[in-house]
Amino acid sequence: DAGVIQSPRHEVTEMGQEVTLRCKPISGHDYLFWYRQTMMRGLELLIYFNNNVPIDDSGMPEDRFSAKMPNASFSTLKIQPSEPRDSAVYFCATQLSGANVLTFGAGSRLTVL
Amino acid sequence: GQQVMQIPQYQHVQEGEDFTTYCNSSTTLSNIQWYKQRPGGHPVFLIQLVKSGEVKKQKRLTFQFGEAKKNSSLHITATQTTDVGTYFCAKFTGNQFYFGTGTSLTVIP
To answer: What's chain A look like in SS3?
Structure first.
């Protein structure tokens, strides 16, 4: 298995632009989590899905953030409009229920100028 | 709340010295996990502890779960430059993973 695949690995954009981050989970993993990592706030859970259904989005910072999981093999995290304070590394991580182990993707490093 | 506190935040050691990071919770934990994140990398699962007083070893790494299941530690014996990175503890509860703040380890050759 190729693991959790995230794209893009790096994104530099200007304030006000729309940003879409993508994640392909490990096949068969039924939980998908989106995390944001910054020096100041560490690893923050933004939202997680179970069987493609959003379960808890209380970590999503603002309405500018949205996440979808249209099918079991694809999820997106969208920021519109982006702001400089959104600069961070965004990780997608997946889990097979019962295994209690998170497998992270390589992350998407976002810089908003 | 759901936080796990981790200390120290940073640690610099000479290669060959030992290193320990501690994880503390105000509530009893059903389990504790440890992850390692190399610089520029992503967190990678190391181990999970579930039993009171449990001790597990992975080569030079020793993981302990406290008797009261409110704290845990990761000890590295004779650090090497390959040990550089940030070590996170995490608890899994309610289908969510709650991560500690991490301890960033620097090993000076």
So the answer is: CCCCEEECCEEEECCCCCEEEEEECCCCCCEEEEEEEECCCEEEEEEEEECCEEEECCCCCCCCEEEEEEECCEEEEEECCCCHHHCEEEEEEEECCCCCCCEECCCEEEEEC
